[in-house]
Amino acid sequence: MWGKLEQTFFWIIAYIPVVSIGSYRFFFENQISELTIYKYEISGDTIDIISVITILAVSITIYMNTPKLALRKLERKLATGEKGGDYQIKHFEKLNLNDYTFFLLTLILPLITVDFSSPVSTIVCFFVVVFIITLLVKIDYIIACPLFFVSSYKIWRVKMVEPSMKDIEIDAFLITKINDFFEQDFRAVKLIKNVYLLTEKKN
Questions:
Q1: Nearest alpha-carbon partner for 106 in 195, 19, 172
Q2: CA 194, CA 173: separation in Å to the nearest integer?
Q3: What is the model's pTM?
Q4: At what angle do helices 4-14 and 16-27 cross, to 10 degrees?
Q5: For residues 116 and 26, is the Cβ–Cβ distance under 8 A?
Q6: pLDDT tens per residue, range 118-131
Q7: How many of the other CB atoms lie within 10 Å of CB of 106?
Q8: In this predicted model, what pLDDT tens digit does every residue of 53-62 receive, in sequence order?
Q9: All residues at 6 or more sequence positions from 143 whose CB lies less than 8 Å from its CB, including other chains
Q10: Closest to 133 measured CA to CA, from 1, 2, 9, 3
Q11: How many domains does the chain have?
Q12: Type and span of the H or E element at 28
């Protein structure tokens, strides 16, 4: 099972855009009025836009690759039977956008409302981010982490059973790459509370 450390790692990665853009705006925004490259003049606003787009592109790349790298070893052990158990999926549905609303608000609002030219506002914003991460980790709300929203992994809300106890349904959330759950046995291991990592069962 996961502890708080693994969840903290995922949430720190999730808030990289806020911290990076906030830091850029605090240290560099309005510091460069224009830049000349090969006789072409680039305005300060253009430099800011390019910098923010670059930060977002790097953040999305990190988002897409972090789950794959973090879960690869556990997923391999799961598929070979070293970890977890067998399960069958009886009902499944995707999370809707409302499940990500809190994170999206805490990601977008600081970038719009915070005056990052002010040291006090910047420090307060970063302390709020730390508080939010601490709260999300404490309540084990990893299912709302956007790294799974944009990567090859997805979060599903399911009812599943163990083959040996088909009368007992387990309400769970699955982190998985799989999209088709019909009439198959899978391997799954509990990460936290009712959150499981699931993969195909190798014969």
A1: 19
A2: 6
A3: 0.86
A4: 50
A5: yes
A6: 899 999 999 999 99
A7: 18
A8: 999 999 999 9
A9: 95, 99, 155, 173, 195
A10: 9
A11: 1
A12: none
